[in-house]
Structures are given as C-alpha cells and as structure tokens.
Amino acid sequence: MEFVLQVDEKIIRKIKPSKRTILYFLILMNAKNIYRRPLSDIDCVFFMIKFFLLASPLLAVFVCIFISFFESFVLLVFSILLIPYLFFLLLAYLRYRNESYWITNKRVICKRGLIGYRIISIPLERISDVLVSRNLLERILGFGSVWIESLAGQAGAEAVFHGLRNPQEIQELILEELGSK
C-alpha cells in the first residue's frame, strides 16, 4: 500500500480500473483534460477518428506483408510504423498499471502516474459532488468514470476514477459514506 491509513480508518473498497482502460488511454493519449472535465461524445469521436486514421497505415502494411510474403522493404516500413504504436501502447499500459482507487470510511484516494505516481486524497467532509460519466468511447468499451468534486473551489473534478465497470455502484458507495458522516 502506497499510503498510510489514518487512525480508525478502514478501507471499504479497493478498485482497479478495467483492463479495457489501456485502450481508452491509448486512444486518448493526447487528451490533456481527461482529469479535469468529462469528455463530450464529440471529443471522443475526434480522438477515435484521429487514432484510427493514424492506425490505418499500419493496417495497410499488414496487408502488404501478407501479399508480398515478407519482402524486406515492407518489413522495414512496418517496423518504422510499429515502433511508435508499441511505445504508446507501453505508455498506456504503464498508466493503467499505476491507476488504483480506494474508498475508506474517512476519504477517497486516487493513485495515478506513468513511471512515478501521484496520490490524491480527499476527505469525505470536503466532497461536494460525485458524478458519473459515460462518454461514447467509455460506452463502447463497457465502462464509465466517477468524477469527485470537492469544496476546494477549483474548476473541474479533483479526482477521477476511470475505467469502472459499474460507476453507479461506486457513486452510491461514496454517497453512502458521505451520508454516514
């Protein structure tokens, strides 16, 4: 565990995002605001089109490989196109691996990062709203997100739980804990 529990604090639920979140992070690699506000369906369509337009040369090279029976030039082009995708896939996997969420009887905790990590802890008393988001891409991949806003007054959510198979259940759990305080 990367954080220390407070006195009389108990972990109610430890949450790991769905493995499909790797694809979500891969497609939205350039989206800098996915932790500030929910992406609209238009934003998701834009990122999906951009991702698949960039991936279409890779598909064309796959076809060329099968047609040309592994000619060296095609393999060279394929390798040049594949290296950036493998790099971005590695980044998306590292981002997924470092995402974890905890709900305790005193606070919600969010851990994220690529190589290093950052832990965000919000006391239950400071939570002002708990929102559920399911944009187009999240619906396609079969999960949603929970956005936790606090009384800190900053614009957007202070913590985001991405890749939840049942975000409404997590929202209800946090709201129950808020109600018990």
Question: Could you walk me through the main structural features you see in this protein, from its secondary elements to its overall organization?
Answer:
There is one protein chain. The protein is α+β, with helices and mostly antiparallel strands and 181 residues long. It has a domain of 125 residues: PH-domain like. It is built from five helices and seven strands, in the order E-H-H-H-E-E-E-E-H-E-E-H. The chain is elongated. The chain starts with 10 loop residues before the first strand and ends with a helix. The model has no long low-confidence stretch (mean pLDDT 80).
Class from secondary-structure proportions: alpha+beta
CATH topology description of one domain = PH-domain like
CATH class of one domain: Mainly Beta
Which value, in Å, is the CA radius of gyration? Answer: 20 Å
Q: Which sequence of SSEs, written as H and E, runs from N to C?
A: EHHHEEEEHEEH
CATH superfamily of one domain: Pleckstrin-homology domain (PH domain)/Phosphotyrosine-binding domain (PTB)
Mean pLDDT: 80
Number of strands: 7
